[in-house]
Specification:
With about 525 residues, the protein is mainly alpha-helical. It is about 75% helix and about 0% strand. It is built from 16 helices and no strands. It starts with 10 loop residues before the first helix and ends in a 27-residue tail after the last helix. The relative contact order is 0.14. The C terminus is likely disordered.
Length: about 525
């Protein structure tokens, strides 16, 4: 870094941060609200087990597919302009999702929300990185940004529980409408526009290659979740890998690439992205399984389940705002390693939950999981953004958001599928031939199906289904614990060179890319 003096943020920038936090709160709220809405949604639309997974993660996968494109597009047409376009689209599609009349319609609406969300997420983070040039202020602003997501997650269960208690499941999507209106009104006054200088030509071939690289992999993950290893699954995965290689090769030869692959030569950038990706896999799977456990196994109504989900989300809020302050005195890698070690303990507690009376243990374990999430969301994101030059703010922010959204979606797909596989294996041994075929299929497919068919099942079979679902969650959480141990090592060892935030000689770069980051970032 040079000794260039940077201007501190003023009232307009902090007011702009408040506006940028609105869509972030909304996205966090959407996560927990939808998990709580799943039981009533399933009762109304009666989706299959596969459709349930698509409803939950089509949004995340489509965001992951389009984030790189939208992040780079924002650098070219203006980050604020893209943010406002995304807000209008998100509000409109949310209305369509709210009034979906079939599972397929809701899946399509969730996919459209993903594309709209892909315009929001990189814009908010990239604008923060350009509005706050001072390193300490930027780190704190990103912590506030991450805290906004935590606040949304904390409010989601409570607000969603109340709404589900008085209205139908679709009402939770309508929360996006007033947020979109406020953002569209306030953004022009408080948020400065930013376009990357010398942004170059927008390469449509790179956009196409990125989508063909991601979407077949998405299909492969989803098909594997349903059918295991089959020829179409393997073929789709191979197609995705081949086009990913072609995409990376093309980026290396472009003057203005969709993704600057030189950023990956910075080990801090790569290691922080890895921590975000793997960390969010565990969180995505645990969010789905725990909310189902609270309602389907413990039998809690939405409002009560929402209240129990509040304290863990508040732990995330605490970590997201506190970690950047602690990292001014303690190296960020060490802060992340300690909190991820606590998250590992949390996953172990979740792996020990039993099918009855496990609410307190779940809340304690999930609180520790969220403690690690808040820390890596704030510090990991800051490390990624700090490693990129200002003109790559949208692209770097998009990469950060891509791996987080992909991690959440993969967590639902992989850990959700693992839990489902354990459930189905145990239920195959319990379902007898004298049960009506449609009831047997529903009970054997998922716990949601068993609960919806409870009145037509033999006495005791629902209890066995709940025990099978608990075993599935225990297995998935044990796998998540093992993966988090790897992240503890990665944070403590690979990121040990990163100095405290705001130090005289920041070392956010590690192995510096070909063109070092500008002093303003």
């Amino acid at each position: 870094m040079s000794t260039t003096t940077v201007r501190g943020a003023g009232a307009r920038e902090w007011g702009g941060l408040a506006v940028l936090s609105l869509p972030t709160v909304l996205l966090g709220l959407d996560v927990t609200v939808l998990y709580l809405a799943l039981p009533s949604l399933a009762e109304d639309l009666r989706p299959s087990g596969t459709q349930e997974l698509w409803i939950m993660d089509a949004y995340g996968f489509l965001i992951a597919g389009f984030l790189l494109t939208m992040g780079t597009l924002g650098d070219r047409i203006g980050l604020r302009r893209l943010l406002m376009i995304g807000a209008a689209a998100f509000g409109t599609v949310s209305v369509l999702a709210a009034y979906s009349t079939s599972a397929d319609m809701l899946v399509v609406a969730r996919a459209a929300l993903g594309i709209a969300g892909a315009t929001l997420m990189p814009s908010t983070l990239a604008l923060i990185s350009t509005m706050f040039a001072d390193q300490r202020q930027r780190s704190l602003a990103i912590g506030v940004w991450a805290t906004s997501f935590a606040l949304g997650m904390a409010l989601g269960p409570v607000v969603g529980g109340v709404m589900l208690n008085h209205f139908w499941w679709g009402s939770v999507f309508l929360l996006a409408v007033p947020v979109a209106i406020v953002l569209l009104v306030a953004a022009p006054a408080l948020i400065p526009e930013y376009r990357a200088p010398r942004s170059g030509r927008f390469d449509l071939l790179s956009v196409t290659l990125s989508l063909i690289a991601i979407l077949p992999v998405v299909y492969a993950v989803k098909r594997f979740a349903k059918d295991g290893f089959e020829v179409p699954t393997i073929a789709a995965a191979l197609i995705g890998v081949v086009f990913a290689v072609l995409f990376v090769r093309r980026q290396g030869g472009l003057v203005s690439p969709l993704l600057d692959v030189r950023l990956f030569t910075d080990r801090t950038f790569s290691a922080a992205l890895s921590v975000l990706l793997i960390g969010l896999v565990g969180v995505g799977g645990s969010m789905l399984l725990i909310t189902q456990q609270l309602q389907f196994v413990e039998g809690l109504p939405p409002v009560e389940a929402g209240l129990w989900m509040g304290p863990p989300a508040l732990m995330m809020l605490l970590a997201a705002i506190g970690a950047p302050l602690v990292a001014r005195r303690v190296p960020p890698g060490l802060v992340m390693a300690v909190t991820l070690a606590l998250s590992t303990v949390g996953y172990v507690l979740l792996a020990l939950v039993e099918s009855t009376g496990g609410v307190a243990l779940m809340v304690a374990g999930f609180g520790l999981v969220y403690l690690g999430l808040g820390t890596i969301a704030a510090l990991g994101t800051d490390l990624v953004v700090a490693a990129a030059p200002a003109e790559k703010a949208g692209s770097a922010s998009a990469m950060s958001e891509t791996v987080q959204e992909l991690g959440l979606a993969l967590g639902v797909a992989i850990l959700g599928s693992l839990a489902t596989a354990v459930y189905r294996d145990q239920m195959d041994d319990e379902i007898s031939g004298d049960i009506p075929p449609e009831v047997a299929d529903a009970a054997g497919d998922s716990l949601a199906g068993a609960v919806s068919s409870a009145q037509r099942m033999p006495v005791g079979l629902l209890d066995l289904a709940r025990e099978a679902a608990t075993s599935g969650m225990n297995t998935a959480m044990a796998v998540a614990a093992a993966c988090t141990v790897v992240l503890v090592f990665l944070s403590a060892v690979v990121l040990r060179h990163v100095g405290v935030i705001g130090g005289d000689e920041p070392e956010a770069g590690g192995d510096v890319p070909a063109e070092p980051a500008k002093s303003g970032v």
